[in-house]
Amino acid sequence: MRLKDFPEDIRPYILPEQGGDLVYRCLGCGAEYGIKELLYTCPDCGDVFLIFDKDIDRLKKIPGELWHRIFDYRKMLKMPSFKGIYLYHEFIGSIINKDSIVWLGEGHTPVVEANPSMQEQVGLKFFFKNDGQNPSASFKDRGMASAFSYINHLIRDGHVSDVLAICASTGDTSAAAALYASYMNTNIKSAVLLPHKKVTPQQLLQPLGSGAFVFEIPGVFDDCMKVVEELSEKYNVALLNSKNAWRILGQESYSYEIAQEFEYDMNNKVVVVPIGNAGNITAVMSGFIKFFEAGIIENLPKIIGVQSEHANPVYLYYKEVDPQKREFIPVKVKPSVAQAAMIGNPVSMPRVINMVDRYNSLAESQMVFFVEVTEQDIMDWELKANRNGHIACTHGGETLAGLIKARQKGIVEENDTAILDSTAHALKFSDFQKMYFENSFPPDYKVTPGSNLINLPVLIHPEGLEKLPAIGNPLGEEDFKKFVNIVSEEIAEILDLKKI
Fold first, then answer.
1. Is 113 helix (H, G, I), strand (E, B) or coil?
2. N or C terminus: which one in the chain shows less Cβ crowding within 10 Å?
């Protein structure tokens, strides 16, 4: 849609202008730093940052209903800069000019309603938001679009050059970082650290295919993260894990899209997310808070963070009811099918604590909850979802299992509508499905396949046929007719088909 075709009162707002007064704000000591350099932790106290707009009040002067129209009309633009997460430019990266924005197709992933059978099993209306349909097949592209657009902005303004982007990963972060770096290959290179044999083959191949330097090291994600932190403190590299506050900023778009999808009505809505390194749940809360304070939404939805019992430090922290007695203790993770969430010492834990307090305070009641699920439930519910027409990864199975647990605990009610985060494409984790079908899970996973969910191919190899079709050696007409007839009859017998 061309600018002249928009309603006259909307035209001044359609193309967002650079503005705002963005700073890094430390969650520990409250110190603020300018954003013209890459910072990850506070030089004074070592705590993590969130990016804060000191001129946020300018956005609150625009009425909520006008914001609805701005975003809804802006969605009709054909300009790549504003097709993705920067549709919400004023709330994400308002200082970044449109020519610096990197868009590879991320954002605005589909929200798909569960079929009637699934909704009946769960006991309420719910949807999957399929973030696996981002360009590198995971939600991490939201944060990378923000981080790389910011780096591109700094490069164009002459503040940085010859950037090496580096991250630790359980798979999805490395794929996203390598993809966006390869798009900017004249200005930036990427390196990723992966725990040896702790990522799926599909996830390992993604950064290799994008040309990144890939290093595998012994241990788990937390060990990779310590190495990356050491590198970022001693060398001139751009850290791209969720310690990078620009990553959090980009992932807030998930909340904005949900609000827009549901016509900005968050009453009786529940958003369920896996926790992992805790950056995503931080971003989800932060995004809804910004829209709430700007008057774009009138209610804050319930937020439910889900963790496997094999990697549950955030759940254990909030399991203590008395805030004065809570103590965060990292855990030693066990093998998990929710591989991206297999993190025992999440970097963004200080952000979670800060955001949960703010969120519940603004809502004037508890609206953020945490539940724990088993590995068995994660796999079973992922397979049930996929058998009902969804493309749920293991983390989508985790959120579905979490929704059911929250329903059992009375956190979610029958008249609520839930939106579940399926963070990556199911094909990234297809090896776990294969292990389930073949009953080959190592004992540490504690997963026993349900016979009703196992599905294996049936080889049809008719006995008595002397000649079979083969590549480069087709059958003659009579032999081929005989082959087709015998094979079709065997299949019909297995399927109990009735003749017409």
1. strand
2. C
**Paired sense of beta strands 22-26 and 32-33, if any:** antiparallel
DSSP 85: G
**Rounded CA gap, 34 and 24, in Å?**
6
Identify the residue whose tokens are 């008395």. 322
Angle between helices 375-386 and 430-437 (to 10 degrees): 100
Q: Show the tokens assigned to 87.
A: 């549709």
Spatial separation of the C-alpha atoms in residues 489 and 476, rounded to whole Å: 20
Q: How far apart are alpha carbons 33 and 290 in whole angstroms?
A: 21
What is residue 163's predicted lDDT score, i.e. its pLDDT? Answer: 87
C-alpha dist (Å) from residue 464 to 31, 103, 197, 344: 81, 59, 45, 58
Give the number of other Cβ atoms within 10 Å of residue 24's Cβ.
22
CATH of 111-135+252-445, one of 2.60.40.10, 3.40.50.1100, 3.40.50.720, 3.40.50.620: 3.40.50.1100
Q: Could you tell me which of 105, 103, 171 has the C-alpha nearest to residue 427?
A: 171
Residue at token pair 């969910």: 453
Structure tokens at 425: 């494409």
Distances (CA, A) of 8 to 11, 58, 90, 325: 5, 21, 20, 56
Options 3.40.50.1100, 1.10.10.10, 3.40.30.10, 3.40.630.30; CATH of 139-248: 3.40.50.1100
Query: Model confidence over 148-198: pLDDT tens digits?
Result: 999 999 999 888 888 889 998 888 899 999 999 999 987 788 999 999 988
Please, what's the b/e burial string for 80-110 (b: 16 or more CB within 10 A of its CB; e: otherwise)? ebbbbbbbbbbbbbbbbebebbbbbebbbbe
Q: 421, exposed or middle or buried, with CB in 10 Å at 0-12, 13-18, 19+?
A: buried
Tokens of 224: 């990779």
Backbone angles phi, psi at 111, to 5 degrees: -110, 110
Helix ranges (DSSP H) in 235-312:
245-251, 253-261, 279-293
